[in-house]
Amino acid sequence: MASRTVDECVVDWAEIRDEALAGLTVSVISPKVQLPALPHAVTLFVQRSRDEMVLLKDLAKILEADAGLTIQLLKYVNSSFLAVQKRVVSAFQALSILGCQHSLRFVIATGMEAAIRAHDSKLVNQNAFWSTSLQKAIFSREIALLLKTDPEVAFVGSLLQDYVLPVLTNDLFDDYCQFVQSEDTNAQTLSEFERATFGWDHGLVGACLAYDWNLPDELVCCIRYHHSGLEILSDPRLGRSPVAATALSALLPDQFCQRHHGLELLAQLERTWPAFCLQRLAESVDRQYVQMGLGIHNDPLLPRCKSLANEHSACSVGTFDAAGR
Questions:
Q1: Which residues contact 224 (CB under 8 A, 6 or more apart)?
Q2: Domain residue spans in the chain?
Q3: Contacts (Cβ under 8 Å, ≥6 apart) of 36
Q4: 11 forms bridges with which residues in the sheet?
Q5: CB of 135 within 8 A of CB of 189?
């Protein structure tokens, strides 16, 4: 889809994507980095789903050729999160319930995770990494609902925001170790470190690769701008979009940023955006994570948010009203 309505304005995602990538491609990456390839079934599914006349039964046949994708799809559809009335046993039934666009985003996310997990990582704990990514994705979807924008784009965009890090940190291990082993608690962010060290950051690499894979432009933009911080809320085109929801989710702690600075910013946003309640969002995120029944342990978000409830931060943020301006 080339455009989407956001707060009565039409967002031209192709135009924003071109601005975001500025003509850059994955060629900017060091040749030492072995970038992953999407599973063939995912590539074919993405291509065929662009045809508005494609039949669900034909898309189902594509998935059925990949047992791993089919199993993950059925597991997701039958989870308590979706609360289907009757157990789903085929890819066609699953696609019928989710619809084409929701199915497309699920297949993209699942396929990309499989592609990344196929590469061993010496620096990233894969289970912890994807657990944190899912936590951010659920948070992003909740934010998108508050912003009255597409929650599924926000979910997948956030799930994929850091997807190339396991590969980058493995192939450029010595460089990333310098960042991880730094004892300076006030050190630069990971993105700042990457730009200073390589001339690019993982958001740009992820966006370029997603573009090469012909993923939807709005997902490319979510990946590219996920480290924009609260400032993106003031952007006239993106401030009420899934990109903004993804950027807010990126403020949550992860393996490469255990400091509470991002949570402190979100806590301050709570004081300027009445509809935004950090603890209530954290409760919802933790509950949904458990309902998905993935069997992967994660650190609940609510206790970390509660620990900040009475803290005063010296950080300052701009105002942002309930209308998202």
A1: 17, 20, 21, 203, 204, 206, 207
A2: 11-27+121-316, 37-118
A3: 112, 115, 116, 118, 119, 167
A4: 4
A5: no
The CATH number for 11-27+121-316, chosen from 1.10.3210.10, 2.60.34.30, 3.40.50.2000, 1.20.1560.10, is 1.10.3210.10
Q: How far, in Å, CA of 210 to CA of 204, rounded?
A: 10
Contact 212, 174 (CB under 8 A): no
Structure-token match 């994705």, residue found: 137
How many separate helices (H) and strands (E) can be counted in the chain? 17, 2
Q: Are 272 and 320 in contact (CB under 8 A)?
A: yes
Which two tokens mark 251? Answer: 């403020």
What Å distances lie between residue 192 and 13, 187, 230, CA to CA? 26, 10, 17
Tell me the C-alpha distance between 149 and 4, whole Å: 9
* Helix (H), strand (E) at residue 11: strand 9-12
CA–centroid distance for 51 within its chain: 25
Joined together, the tokens standing for residue 320 give: 């942002």
pLDDT in tens, the chain (325 residues): 344 444 445 789 999 999 999 999 989 888 889 888 889 999 999 989 888 899 999 999 999 999 999 999 998 888 766 777 789 999 999 999 988 888 998 899 888 888 888 877 889 988 889 889 989 999 999 999 999 999 989 999 999 999 999 999 999 999 999 998 876 656 678 999 999 999 999 999 999 999 999 899 999 999 999 999 999 999 999 999 999 999 999 999 888 876 678 889 998 898 899 999 999 999 999 998 887 765 567 788 988 888 776 554 434 445 444 444 4
Which amino acid, one-letter code, is at 265? L
